[in-house]
Each structure stands twice: as C-alpha cells, then as structure tokens.
Amino acid sequence: MTASEPNAKTMSIRVASYNIREPVGLDWRRDGERIVRVLAEIDSDIVVLQEADRRLGTRPGVLPTKMLSDDLGYEFADFDPESPSHGWHGNAILFRSSRFSLVRSRKISLPTLEPRGAVSAVFETPVFEIIGVHLGLTPGTRRKQLRALADHAAHVERPVLIAGDFNSALANEQIEGLSDSRLTTHANLAWLDAMGIAFLTLRRRTARTVAALLVEPPEAWRRITLTNVGRIYRNPRILERRLRIRDYPGEIRQIAVTDLGYEKPTLLLSNQMDEPASRLVDRYARRMVIKNTIADAIDFFHMDARSAAVPMRIDLDVQPTLMASSLYRLLGIRVGQGFEVAKARTIFRKLVNASAADRITEGEIIFTLGRRANNPLLLAARYGEIAQPIPWLGNRTLRTRFF
User: Fold this and answer.
1) Residues 139, 143, 144, CA angle at the centre, nearest 5°?
2) Is 363 helix (H, G, I), strand (E, B) or coil?
3) E-only strand ranges, 125-173
4) Fewer Cβ close by (within 10 Å): the C or N end of the chain?
5) 314-335 vs 277-301: helix crossing angle, rounded to 10
6) Contacts of 71 (CB under 8 A, 6+ apart)
7) Which residues contact 84 (CB under 8 A, 6 or more apart)?
8) pLDDT 10s digits, 337-396
9) What is the pLDDT of residue 289?
10) Cis check: omega of the bond before 126, within 30 degrees of 0
11) Per-residue b/e over 326-335, b at no fewer than 16 CB within 10 Å?
C-alpha cells in the first residue's frame, strides 16, 4: 500500500497478517523466536497477528517483545496497559514507531458466542486505520461480524484496512463481498487512485450487470492465456470496458472473465489502464488456485467431505488436512516426473496405494512393497535408502524395501 505525504512525496507501507497459532509449530514446540525470524524475512511495516496470546489464565503474550523491539524495531499497539497480553482475544498489531505515530488504539466488540473481537490502531502521516480480526467459525457468525466491521468503516472519514484470519477455507461470496461493499467502497478506491496506488479488486455481480454482459455479442469477447492455472482454465474469455461508477471520479477499468469454472462472469475493477489484461487476471487466478488446492485436499482426505469443500470441525480438521496435503506435495516433488503438480488422489493411486508385507522387530519396522510400474520412480528418489526413526514407536527405524 502506498500513500501520499503532505509534501506530495510518496511512501510505501507494507502490511502483513499472520496467524502464529500461539506459536506452536508442526513439531508441537512453542517457539516465539521462530516467529521473529519469519517476521524479519517478511519485513513489514505493520503486522496484524492472530493467536498471539495464550488462551488460558491471564492470557500472557507468547512473543519475545525485547527481541522484536531490539532486532526489528517493532512495538505492540497497547489495548490494555494492565494486561500481560500482546493484544485482545489473541489479536495484536505490531508497528514500527520509527515510521508511524500511533494516534489511538482500541478494542472493537464483535457479535459472537465465543471469546473473539477485533483491535483497531489509528496512525498518522498519513492518517489511516488498521483493524485486526480473527472471525468466528460459522458462516452466520462471520456474516454478523463482517456487518459490524462494515458499519464501523462506513462511519469514519479515514481509509481503513481490515486484515486478519477470516476463518474461511474458500474465497466464497462472503469474502468476495469485501471487495465491493462498504469495506472497500468506491470512495476508497478513489482515494487509492488519488494516492497513486495501483489496485485490483472484485466487483459485486448484480443481476443487472450480469444481464448486460450476457447480451454482448460473442465477437466482443476475446481469449487470453494464463500461467497460474491448470489447462482446463488456462484460456478464459474476457470483455474489457472503461466505465464510470458512483463516487469514483473519472473512468475505471472493468474486466469481465468467463470460463474460469464459475457459473457467472467474474468482474474485476482496476485503475491500471495500461497493464495487459492477462497479467491482471493472472493475479486474481492465483487465489483461485489456492481455493482449488484446498478443495481438492478436503475432497480427497476427508471421507465426510461436503459439497462446499469446507471442513466442518475446523480446529480438528484443518491441521491434519494441511499436514497430509503437504506430505503428499513433498512426495510428489521428491519423485518428480510430473508428480510435483499432481493432485493428491493421483499421487495416492500411482505411488502410495500398493500392497505390502510388513515385518516388525525390536529395532525396525520394514515394509516391503509389491511390484508396481512406478516403483522405479520411488527407487530413483532413494526411498529404499531412507531409515527413519519413529519416536512414538520406541524409536524403531522405518525402512522401505521393494520386490
């Protein structure tokens, strides 16, 4: 994000959002210094954190504040001077005081049955507001919380950026609505344009807008080639228009996109008039790739997968799903030969789903895989040479053999 200073010079502001999960890693160790190292790599001016405090007792903060201050120059926005927490309900905001002056910080109550909320920090030079959120687990709760945040954003004059963990596995309509609702109003788009900020955002697909697109002649549409999606969606059709919208001075660029796997056209708004349309659509398509990856993982790894492709028990399901998906991806990368980009079900069918004989001794667990056409790929990846100790099985060594 960039913004204009009073002397008409521009400044760059980098904002990041990071759910640090208290911060417990995949090795089940709590290590705040690892988070500091990640933040050093991200090198953002402002960081919105979720799960930055412990959940029980006085909810103390989990990060080394002195290390954050001395090594990275970060300070926490203070929401309760008497509390040992970094923030409120796990939400915290880090900022570099060498760049921004904190004008005000406060808590924002959200409608919820669980202990959740939002935190707000207002900065100056330039004046803007950052709101950190960690939304609820159910769609109904999230909708109520989004409406409360929208009401807040609609009643302030300054630009507002809302960042955090929205607890939604898909970029569905609920989240897409943020891009053309009061949370990102046409007036805010005008402010971004006036500050020289390039933006790309989704536009709400109203019935009237979709109807107007459907009567456009076929020759008005043209095909483009994308690089961030699979072959089936690599050549969508687009229709470009320059139009005027309420509360936005001047023309804005609209790109309608079809053949991306959605029933209705996707509408993009941008002030980047000269940027090739294929590049702009490519940037949007990256989100679609993430969504499809999550949907594929849930569809394959969950026996009770729902059509909406959203885990029902989020706290329990997301962690094992991501772990399993990552392990399959690592297997595909190690084997190569096109498996780097293969779906989990394909990797399972061709590499994993095989009969095997096992032998367990006091010191070893040996699996001997039956003959399969793709076994040479596993041998070439040196899986036959791996000897992996298993701590929770008496440190027995796991070995794989091939007929």
Assistant:
1) 120
2) coil
3) 128-134, 160-165
4) C
5) 110
6) 36, 40
7) 58, 59, 60, 61
8) 888 878 888 888 888 888 888 888 888 988 888 888 888 888 888 888 888 888 888 888
9) 59
10) yes
11) eebbebbeeb
The span from the CA of 169 to the CA of 309, in Å, is: 8
In this structure, the number of other CB atoms found within 10 A of the CB of residue 53 comes to 24
pTM over cut 0.70: no
- Return d(Cα 76, Cα 262) in angstroms, integer: 42
In order, the DSSP letters of 263-330 are SS-EEEEES-SSS-HHHHHHHHHHHHHHHHHHHHHHHHH-TT--TT---SSHHHHHHHHHHHHHHHHH
Q: How far apart are CA 262 and CA 280, in angstroms?
A: 18
DSSP H or E segment with residue 313? none
Cα–Cα dist 146/178, whole Å:
9
Per-residue pLDDT of 149-167, as tens digits, reads 887 887 788 888 899 998 8
Identify the bridge partners of residue 256 per DSSP, sorted by sequence position.
239, 267
Torsion of the alpha carbons at 335, 340, 346 and 349, rounded to the nearest 10: 10
162 HSE (CA, 13 A, CB side): 27
pLDDT tens per residue across span 108-130: 988 877 778 899 999 987 889 99
pLDDT digits (tens, 9 = 90+) for 179-219: 434 446 788 788 778 767 778 888 888 888 888 898 899 99
Q: Which two tokens stand for residue 292?
A: 């499809």
Do residues 158 and 126 make contact, with C-beta atoms less than 8 angstroms apart? no
Six token digits for residue 74: 């970060």
Q: Of how many residues is the chain composed?
A: 403
Tokens of 213: 């697109």
DSSP state of 77: P
Contact 223, 239 (CB under 8 A): no
Supply 131's token pair: 């709101």
102 burial type by CB count under 10 A (0-12 exposed, 13-18 middle, 19+ buried):
middle
Dihedral sign of CA atoms 293, 299, 300, 301 in order: positive
Tokens 């009061």 — which residue? 182
Q: Give the pair of three-digit tokens for residue 115.
A: 């202990």
Give 64's contacts (C-beta < 8 A, 6+ positions apart): 32, 33, 36
The token duo for 43 is 């090198």
Q: What is the mean pLDDT of residues 212-234?
A: 84
Give the type of residue at 62.
V
**163 in helix, strand or coil?**
strand
Distance separating alpha carbons of residues 318 and 314, to the nearest angstrom: 5
